[in-house]
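Fill-in record for Chloride channel protein.
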Amino acid sequence: MVNAGDMNGSGNLMDFLDEPFPDVGTYEDFHTIDWLREKSRDTDRHRKITSKSKESIWEFIKSLLDAWSGWVVMLLIGLLAGTLAGVIDLAVDWMTDLKEGVCLSAFWYSHEQCCWTSNETTFDDRDKCPQWQKWSELLVSQSEGASAYILNYFLYIIWALCFAFLAVSLVRVFAPYACGSGIPEIKTILSGFIIRGYLGKWTLLIKTVTLVLVVSSGLSLGKEGPLVHVACCCGNFFSSLFSKYSKNEGKRREVLSAAAAAGVSVAFGAPIGGVLFSLEEVSYYFPLKTLWRSFFAALVAAFTLRSINPFGNSRLVLFYVEYHTPWRRKTTRLGKYPVLEVIVITAITAIIAYPNPYTRRSTSELISELFNDCGALESSQLCDYINDPNMTRPVDDIPDRPAGPGVYSAMWQLALALVFKIVITIFTFGMKIPSGLFIPSMAVGAIAGRMVGIGVEQLAYHHHDWIIFRNWCRPGADCVTPGLYAMVGAAACLGGVTRMTVSLVVIMFELTGGLEYIVPLMAAAVTSKWVADAFGKEGIYEAHIHLNGYPFLDVKDEFTHRTLATDVMRPRRGEAPLSVLTQDSMTVEDVETLIKETDYNGFPVVVSRDSERLIGFAQRRELILAIKNARQRQDGVVSNSIVYFTEDPPEVPPNSPHPLKLRRILNLSPFTVTDHTPMETVVDIFRKLGLRQCLVTRSGRLLGIITKKDVLRHMAQMANQDPESIMFN
């Protein structure tokens, strides 16, 4: 409290905001932060810490701790994100195999782990061992025959339904925000939007558990996108432990950008790709220090995951390759019943997937097999070629060979799997469960790529004299590698869905270890983006953001229309005048009435209603908190107390109640544009400065206001879209 002097014998006045009070400077749910204000607050905080550090050794130590707190947060995020990813990978492997059988020696072992420990496993039958038994062997002592097949089929469906039902129930009851991929919401949050609870501790717990369940159920979805959400929940949790980040929404988003990089790092074993993904795809504000911290968090997460070794090969990569040649719904009838929707889709998926070996296995295993080159020791159907008995080539230099019956059988099964994956993924993505689109998209592309690769390989073998093969494919040479076609197809399909380019190429070569094939990956990424952009400029995540009406101003969108600020500002002609506060002529009751009768986020403050000369801007939330705290802590503040925003108190009649000074909550430098400013410039200003609103003036006189929602609605209208689809500010 400060003494404002004695006025008209009424005693001491106070600017009570000289003392901090709870919740000042915070934002309401589903509102956008003020980036300029957050930046200014952090600058003030840093200036105070720097000046205090010269006063004593203790203050100097505190300043060092503050400077290093960012790196500590990154270390903690990397450790927790890597640990959770490793646990999820191990649990998914075990529960996926649990649908088909159980390990008798240790029930917590997956099929592969169970047979690792067996001394009776042979190379030819490395997937078979006495310790691992299918459910038919365990229950009816039969491994072959119709009855055994039907029993295994039935239990496969039952396990899938149980996993899916438990997942959707947990999401619905405990953490509704745990559904979906999470990346569209993360992009929106990083742009400055507030969604309380989306990165909360319950969301973290439920998403981690249910992610294991839904992936194990066999639904056509991946865990990679949701792992970004999980990592950002970790980032939000650790940032709340440090006041530097918990009290500044702008600084918190720097941590979340780094957490997103760590999420991609553990999802794909791609720390560099994770940093580029955060920079290219999700981050809105990405200063240089965030780049270094993102890399550190991604590196720690990757090393943590490697120490857990969930893939059992001491590698970070999911699909290591070594070649020896250089959609979402908003409303549907079924969507109104989320539990029933999940059960129905899971049942359909399990029933159709089980008979086909390429859809029965997990999607990660399928992609791994499609990426693999056919060596002499491979036993896959895809490698059933007719070998020349007189061949004396080294094992790693096998020439092109004619396809055997196994390859033709696999082609039919892959064709059916391709159609199934495309159709079922459309319905699966968007259900009320954690669901990623990365791996299903890659699977579709990998299946198509492998089929094309086999086709080209056989054409090259049987028609090596054709002009397209003549110059580079001689008889008996290893001309075509189908696994490489699968890898390029996976990159192309994922790029077409998400519109990723640079980060996609880096993720793919980190994911597969195929650095020397970066050129075909680059060509695939660019071509897929061009083709997809011909159908529409939006990727799946941008489309999801617009579907939900989030106020996301994409830096990639172009605005070339010749409109002015006066065409967009409110109030428009025929509308009620702009709601404003005057600097020293309104009472507490007048301000409370204005707040109650409107739902605006803030109010311009003018000298008087006649002059409309602008002096600042006051946020709605801070007005409410200021008046509430003043009534509780300052004697004499009543409904007819004058509210003033000037340094000196106004002249009031004798015996009047104490006036209330609120200058400390007033933004004295709100961003303004003139009424003839081109909207192209206004849009650019909103993007680059992260504005929440700007005021429109002419010669210092207030004319109107433009909010972020107004900008987005105007852009939608100019693009012949529904402007009412933008629901939040």
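KEY FINDING: The longest strand covers residues 701-707.
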